[in-house]
Amino acid sequence: MSARLPVAKLFPENAKADGGRMSKAWVDVLVDVPLLADLSRRHLGKVAALGRTKRFPARTSIVTAGTNADAFYVVLDGKATVRAGSRRIPIVAGDYFGEMGLLDGGARSASVVADTEILVMAIPRRGFLKLLESEPKIAISIMATLAQRVRSLQATSASV
Questions:
Q1: pLDDT tens digits for 17-43?
Q2: pLDDT of 2 higher than 90
Q3: Domains (ranges, CATH) in the chain?
Q4: Residue 139: burial class (beta carbons within 10 Å; 0-12, 13-18, 19+)
Q5: How far apart are CA 30 and CA 26, in angstroms?
Q6: 92-115 burial by CB neighbour count: b if 16+ within 10 A, else e?
Q7: Cβ contacts of residue 57 below 8 Å, gap of 6+?
Q8: Distance between CA atoms of residues 14 and 53, nearest Å
């Protein structure tokens, strides 16, 4: 999870909340996700086309720690809380979570619970992996981003 994305200006009042496909307008939302930020607009459009809207009622678990990751989420409307051990991190429209789950499908490290009714864009891992197979340039770009993250972490740990 990172800085808020600019969904407020893009969020259409009549957006489907029943699993409807995301439009190409959502490219502007995904461009600010660090993992995807270096992708071309064409490739971001392909990722956005995988997205579906999903609505959760208040006090509903969106993801649960320890379960296998199956999707990446961008909060479009509403509020939730990330619960990682004793830490509580509030998230609102424009925040995102689960981006690493797109790649490894590993166990979730935190739970996310809706505080209010919440609308999210969900990008399923299975569809994302199929997209990587058909568009290897997306995988190459993501690998470069991850390598930059590792180098940055190594530089930080070396200076401590």
A1: 445 555 667 788 888 888 888 999 999
A2: no
A3: 7-158 (2.60.120.10)
A4: middle
A5: 6
A6: bbbbbbbbebbbeeeebebbbbbe
A7: 114, 117
A8: 12
